[in-house]
Amino acid sequence: MPGVPIELLPTGPEQAELVRNLYQFYAYESSAFEQEDVEVDGRFYIHEPHLQRYWQSPGWSASLVLADGFIAGFVLVERSELPGMDAFELADLFILPKYRRQGIGLAVAQQLLCSTGKDWLLRCYAEDASALAFCQAVLAALPRAVREISLDDDPQLRNYLVSQRRH
To answer: Which residue ranges form the domains of the chain, and what is each CATH number?
Structure first.
């Protein structure tokens, strides 16, 4: 458990620029395994219509992660649009390096995955060893049933369904 107070602060469209800026750090870190290049302006590509959905689509949200009142990262939640999948998806969770290894990301993920009576989908790139280890640590500590599932949309992802049922 983190030693500092953790808060999830929901954002509105007026904070889109802040989330967009933080997302650049996330994209930078994931560029190694996603093989992404920067655009001609030196920034990583962000699909603007997709980003705007976090403030427009039901079941989608963007929240800042605050640690002791300071911005420590962000979390993006989506309503899964995969066929036959009625679940929320913890789409992206990013914690700034200063705040890592303090249990903040783990606390945020566990809070979200246990926050509703709905199922959750957690997906991790199989080649991102640190993200996969983080996902497995989150799932191991959950008081809910978890199972790995196979989905056909992206073979690079490991997919875990967190059931609304408790162990």
So the answer is: 6-166 (3.40.630.30)
DSSP string, 94-124: EE-GGGTTSSHHHHHHHHHHTSSSSEEEEEE
Q: Are 153 and 80 in contact (CB under 8 A)?
A: no
DSSP the chain: --SS-EEEEE--GGGHHHHHHHHHHHHHHHHHHHT----TTSS----HHHHHHHHHSTT-EEEEEEETTEEEEEEEEEE--STT--EEEEEEEEE-GGGTTSSHHHHHHHHHHTSSSSEEEEEEETT-HHHHHHHHHHHHT-SEEEEEE--SS-TTEEEEEEEEEE-
CA 67 to chain centre: 17
**Which pLDDT does position 166 carry in this prediction?**
60
Residue holding tokens 């196979």?
150
Rounded CA-CA distance 74/105 in Å is: 10
For 22-62, the pLDDT digits (tens) are 998 888 887 777 778 877 888 878 888 999 999 999 999 99
